[in-house]
Design brief:
By secondary structure, the chain is mainly α. It has one domain (3-237). 84% of the residues lie in helices and 0% in strands. The protein is built from ten helices and no strands. It has helices at residues 3-14, 21-26, 28-53, 55-71, 73-82, 87-113, 120-153, 161-170, 175-207, 211-237. α3 (28-53) runs antiparallel to α4 and α3 packs antiparallel against α6 (87-113).
Length: 240
């Protein structure tokens, strides 16, 4: 890494105040946050319009959005297909939700780590995400950008765009490059999951109309078990 690229990593390690309110607005992270908030607002307005024009679809889309944010892309996609939505709706919605998720979370993490903007309610979340990213940093650094892309793409626990973006920050990647790699890996992962889950949904739905919902519940259970296991390991690691 060049010295220019290494600067964000050094700042992350120091965690010292190095900016002002103006920095929040003019920095690359500030512009990214504005983009993410704008996208989230536009998406919310669209959901509101759907609520008026098509209440049933609005409920399905809201449920898919919430499922994606809480349980991840696979569960969100499975929810969408289980309600009868097709590729033309499910894939773009998943991409938009993941995009504003990471473009809002990433700059907030950076501001918090640099002590420019500290949100107490998110402090513990940021610390857990940082610890997870730090544990994968050395492996990803060995393979560079390709390693980061694969990390975001592979369907393993805690390998999504949020953790991937933090790893990119720790590696000192410029914001635009970090987001390009992370979002590209996310979109490819969504496409792969979409075609896989759509095929599974069609097969199970033909034999049992409730099987698709069972698949969704199974994915949620796996998520909850993984979350519990990760939290237990984290508490054990930091236990005196």
């Amino acid at each position: 890494m060049t010295s220019e690229q290494g600067q964000p990593a050094d700042e992350a390690k120091k965690g010292k105040p190095n900016g002002s309110r103006r920095t929040l607005l003019t920095s690359p992270e500030g512009r990214l946050l504005l983009t993410g908030v704008t996208l989230a607002f536009a998406y919310t307005v669209w959901l509101g319009a759907k609520l008026i024009l098509s209440p049933a679809d609005s409920q399905f889309l809201t449920g898919m959005t919430a499922t994606t944010l809480v349980f991840g892309r696979a569960a969100g996609l499975a929810f969408g297909y289980s309600t009868g939505l097709g590729h033309a709706t499910v894939i773009p919605v998943a991409m938009i939700v993941e995009t504003f998720h990471v473009t809002v979370f990433y700059p907030l993490f950076v501001f918090s780590w640099r002590h420019l903007l500290v949100i107490k309610s998110l402090k513990n979340v940021f610390e857990r995400i940082h610890d997870k990213a730090e544990s994968h940093k050395a492996t990803i650094q060995r393979y560079g950008i390709i390693g980061l892309f694969v990390f975001v793409w592979i369907p393993f626990w805690m390998t999504g765009p949020v953790v991937g973006s933090v790893i990119g920050f720790l590696l000192g990647l410029p914001v635009w490059l970090n987001m390009t790699v992370v979002l590209a890996g996310t979109y490819v992962a969504i496409l792969a999951w979409a075609f896989f889950l759509r095929e599974v949904h069609e097969r199970v739905a033909s034999s049992d109309p409730y099987a698709a919902m069972v698949l969704l519940l199974l994915l949620i259970v796996v998520f909850l078990l993984g979350h519990h296991l990760r939290r237990t390991l984290h508490e054990t690691k930091h236990r005196p």
